[in-house]
Amino acid sequence: MEEQETPVGPPKRGNRLPVILAAVVVAVGALVVAIQLAPKSEKATNTAASASSAPAPSAPQSSTTPELPREQPKVPQRAGQEFDAWVSKTSQWLDIPLRAMTGYATTTVTLSKEQPNCHLSWVTLAAIGKTTSDHGRANGGHVGENGVLSAPLGTIEVHDFYNRVVSTANASGPMQLSPAVWAKWQRSASGAKPDPQNLDDAALTTGRALCADGNDLSQGQIWWNSVSSLQSSSLYVHRTLATTNVYGTVGKNPDAPNPAVLSAVNFAIDKIGLPYVWGGNGKGGSDPGFDCSGLTTAAYASAGVKLMRTADTQFRSVAHVDEPKLGDLIFYGEPATKIHHVGLYIGNQQMIDAPQTGQAVQVHTYRKPGDDFAGAGRPTA
Q: What angle do CA 21, 220, 103 make, to 5 degrees?
């Protein structure tokens, strides 16, 4: 096995994120997290020691304001050919079922007229739907033409690394709304009796809850607090943020995303919360987590793209680019001698990485004054 990089991550970042692992039934795919890391130089530990000595996690908090994209991709405001074409294109690009994408887009148009100062974007609704139920596909279900799930969906239990349930009790439906949220904000999109198993009703109810009390979702901390009010699990919020980033990045691009890139990024998002393990490949058992290059290697392997195993060899084997795009590798270290860290770019100045021992796979801003950023590389053509 090749020598592994020193697990020190981008230097001088603040607010460590404790180890959290979710064993969820759906693969989730972003917005932005400016969750800053504060890695200290630590000596490498072996896999077994890292796994057994991980501290008991506390509920991680965002002590910095999440940085939001300046512009969110817009939904055509009128029903018709333009709206249908936009929904169809976006649905195909992001692997969002067409009926679900129609529900998210319609809700966005409705609330943009009723509460324009809320600045609710479809990417937030779609990210929540992806994170909670894979757009209604959890447990083999799907959204029917009438918007109702093919079979009622109860609570999808999400467990942390220590097998503790972190999902909201008695949540249900495609957006996994709690009874309290549903009781307070429920609304039917069609005028019929509101149904939590109807994606249109659930999306509209979710949007109303997010926009409550005059919330302006273009403000990072307000967005964070609003999404947390639906489900307080740090894992839920971080994965939703990451998915919003990816959806927003793809949605603003005039060209379809590279399927391999999107597959790699979604793989990495699904691993948010796994522990940093030096030399880890995330295979489970005695290999429960990843080191930084283990994560990027596994992410691209899931898409059929082979990478070298260490950050340094990855840096020297991929094409270098001036400006990173979705799925590019972000490197740290000294190009002439040693690259010690790598992450996966997800747009809007954010990346997913496995930072260091004692921290989880997470999302954060990839540049900071004083870091040793060495450049970006592109594994795919």
A: 75
